[in-house]
Each structure stands twice: as structure tokens, then as C-alpha cells.
Specification:
Length: about 250
Amino acid sequence: MSGNDKVRVRGLSVHRPIIYGNTAWLLTPEERATVNPDHTHRWTVALRSAASAPGKVGDADDLSYFIKRVTFKLHETYPTPNRNIDKPPFEVTETGWGEFEIHIRITFVVESGEKPISFYHHLKLHPWGPKPNDPASGELPAPSPPLSPIHSWKYDEIVFSEPFQVFLNTLNAHPPTPLPKTKRSLGPGTSENSFTDGTEAPEFTQDMEKEEADRLEAARKAVIAETDKRRAQLIEKEQELERLKKAVADAQ
Ligand code: SLL
């Protein structure tokens, strides 16, 4: 490390797009018999690059150039609930019966000088939407349990502000795979894409980023318009107050 490497590069921030979440599959009766009769699902919780590798949810890039360790803290019903993963894939596969909060902690490579970051993911095992057998949902009961995997993923960006020069060099040497403009067909047959109903595994795209940017811009404009309106009302009320004060003074 030269003297310069320990210097933070002022006014610069670099981000890396990631996704985190889980995929879950129902166990077959045969699997349940061999694994544990109480367990209903097999699931994988993971932290991955946002851009997708062929047939996968995310995972196009190896993130170990900036991530040293990912710790997944599982529910205490699991043996050794703290699972430290020190090399890719940064994921844990387990079987179980219930949903719970998974605490995810990312430790960065030492040269980054960055503190670990922590967040939660709610492990999702059951299909989205109203429960088919819930009479309150007004829906007919589902004919059979879904065979498709359940997906629950979130997009996020890890931002390194004013990184050390040595770490910036590492980041620059590993540009992230850009997100595709629109969702591609991932093709059938992969373990994460074995949907039986014709739908496909989620994929994060530039269009989604743009939609989010458009939503933020619309919200920003609405806030400005509302502020202008309130300011005009305030001016009007202040003028009225002055008028009334003057009227009171004149009457005395
Ligand atoms: C629930 N609050 O009641 C949650 C806890 C815990 C799930 C869910 C462990 C399996 C095992 C497992 O699935 N835990 O230890 O055999 O829904």
C-alpha cells in the first residue's frame, strides 16, 4: 500500500447493485419422509449481484472482490443459526416449516476500510396474494398446492462514499454487469425458473430503474407544487392578518 492508497477520494461515490431474498420450493412427500416430516419447504436465501446470470435470479457477477463475508442469522430453531459464508455463492439452503426474519450482515474486504452493514429479509415460503382457502378472500380454494417456486427478492445498491484509493482501484477493475433494458426470457428448465404456470423468475431491469426514477421525479414535482400552494396561502393569510390588525388599530 502506498501513502496515496490510504487517502479517501473526496467527492466521489461508487455504487454496486445487489439483490437479496429467497426462493422456496414445496417438498414432495418423498422428500419430507427423508428430510424431516415436519418440514414443508426447501429454501435458499442469498445475496447476489443484481444482473442475472443465464436462468438465474441475479448472480451474473462474483461479488467477492468487495465482500469478505455474508452472515445469515437464521431463526433459533435452526442448529448454529449464525451461518458465515466466506466465499460465493453467498447463500444458505435449508429446509423448514415456517417463515421468519433473516438477519443479513455483509462484511467488506479489509482494504475497503468500510464498516459491516446489516439488514433483514423476511423469508417467504407461501404464495403471494390472499390465501386460496381463506373464506374472507372470496376466492375458490386452489385445486392443488402450487409446484412453482416462490420468489421474494429486493433490489438495492451498496454505496461507497469517498472510498480509499486502493479500494476504488479494486472497484474500478470490476464494473458491474449492466442490467438489461427490459426483462429477457430466461428460458425454461432451470431450477430457479421451473414455473408451471408460464410465468418466469423475476429479473431486475433498467426499465424498472427508470420507472422508479420517474416515480421519484413525479413525487418531487408534487412536493414543489404543494409547497408553492401553501406558501401562497400563507402570504394571503399574513396579508389578511395585517388588514385585520390595521382595522382593529383604526377602530381604537
Ligand atoms: C413461526 N415465528 O412461528 C415463526 C418461526 C421458525 C421456522 C418459524 C426450523 C425447522 C426445525 C423452522 O422451520 N423454523 O428446526 O426443524 O412461523
